[in-house]
Amino acid sequence: MAPTKAVVADDHLALPAGGKNTPLTNTIPISNVQTDIYGLEIWEGTLPIIDLGGIHGPRRSDTIKQLGHACQHYGGFMLKNHGISERLLNDIMSKAREFFHLPEEERMKLYSPDPTSLIRLATGFKDDNQNVFVSRESLKFHCHPIENYVNLWPTNPPSYREVVSEYCVAAKRAEITLLEAVFEGLGMERKSIDQILDNHGQYASLNYYPTCDKSNLGLTFGLRGHTDPTILTMLLPDEVSGLEILQDGDWVPVKPIPNTLIVHVGDVLQGLSNCRYKSLLHRVIVNSEKERLSIASYCYPSNDTQMGPPKELIDDDHPLIYKDYTYEEFYTTMWKQRLPDASRLDSFKVSAA
Ligand code: OGA
Ligand code: NI
């Protein structure tokens, strides 16, 4: 059921930007895991596997250290024991699939070219300049606090609002736990952490990558290489491969692990950390046999949050790289410049004209 209405150029290149901690059945084949020099378990040579369950007990400081290594040396990680139940992961994926299998005219009721819409369907499109087709269809929406937005969400498929609300709340809880730990690991003071988390927003996207005709595979991407304009992005992939990350100059596939999220460092964390952590360049490729879905939850600060690195992260060994700027300024500049990656941050460098 490929989306056919390619409307305006609209992909991430131009994007403006429950329950208790029940361990899940992680079916991670040991043979696919190696250990690196920091003691991190690495999934198929790509990203470290972090157990968020460790954050609540005696392994807290080790887990925080592991998160720091993962962000610094890999730009992301696979996250297990994140506290979102297996039942809910299956429910949100089924609901997203049901949505994208609705007739096109039903989905298109949510279409909007306006990036500031509180909910909008974005369709695949052809980029004539580069002669490529970007095939992702996505339903993007704000979701925190839920009660401000839920009435804008579709009522078709049935139970959409209930399932998506439940997932967003659970994902938000995992995100806050994760961000607290990442900020603490960076050495940020409580005041600086609160300044960001108190007004933290949440924006999510259901992503659909249709199968691609064999003859067009060479010219089609799910998403072109980009970094996310977020603090972190938490991605739930289905079982179909397609996500690739740039590592040492090569695009390498990140194979999904059941019940495990994929987390990327975004541009905002690169700025906040004064470049200790770099945002991860990633893309999505498509195939001719299986459609693919993913659910992304984008963590970002409120519009007026100051995004320069906190003073406690600046010293003689780490001279200030970025000036203070608000998320709103970052977001507006990103839309004007339409850059695909963290070079969006360059105009906020202390050294910029
Ligand atoms: C994104 C993204 C990857 C995927 O939504 O920004 O990069 O696997 N998604 O869908
Ligand atoms: Ni992305």
TrEMBL record:
<keyword id="KW-0560">Oxidoreductase</keyword>
<dbReference type="Pfam" id="PF03171">
    <property type="entry name" value="2OG-FeII_Oxy"/>
</dbReference>
<keyword id="KW-0479">Metal-binding</keyword>
<dbReference type="InterPro" id="IPR026992">
    <property type="entry name" value="DIOX_N"/>
</dbReference>
<dbReference type="Pfam" id="PF14226">
    <property type="entry name" value="DIOX_N"/>
</dbReference>
<dbReference type="GO" id="GO:0031418">
    <property type="term" value="F:L-ascorbic acid binding"/>
</dbReference>
<keyword id="KW-0847">Vitamin C</keyword>
<dbReference type="InterPro" id="IPR050295">
    <property type="entry name" value="Plant_2OG-oxidoreductases"/>
</dbReference>
<feature type="domain" description="Fe2OG dioxygenase">
    <location>
        <begin position="192"/>
        <end position="301"/>
    </location>
</feature>
<protein>
    <recommendedName>
        <fullName>Fe2OG dioxygenase domain-containing protein</fullName>
    </recommendedName>
</protein>
<dbReference type="GO" id="GO:0046872">
    <property type="term" value="F:metal ion binding"/>
</dbReference>
<comment type="similarity">
    <text>Belongs to the iron/ascorbate-dependent oxidoreductase family.</text>
</comment>
<dbReference type="InterPro" id="IPR044861">
    <property type="entry name" value="IPNS-like_FE2OG_OXY"/>
</dbReference>
<dbReference type="InterPro" id="IPR027443">
    <property type="entry name" value="IPNS-like_sf"/>
</dbReference>
<dbReference type="InterPro" id="IPR005123">
    <property type="entry name" value="Oxoglu/Fe-dep_dioxygenase_dom"/>
</dbReference>
<keyword id="KW-0408">Iron</keyword>
<dbReference type="GO" id="GO:0016491">
    <property type="term" value="F:oxidoreductase activity"/>
</dbReference>
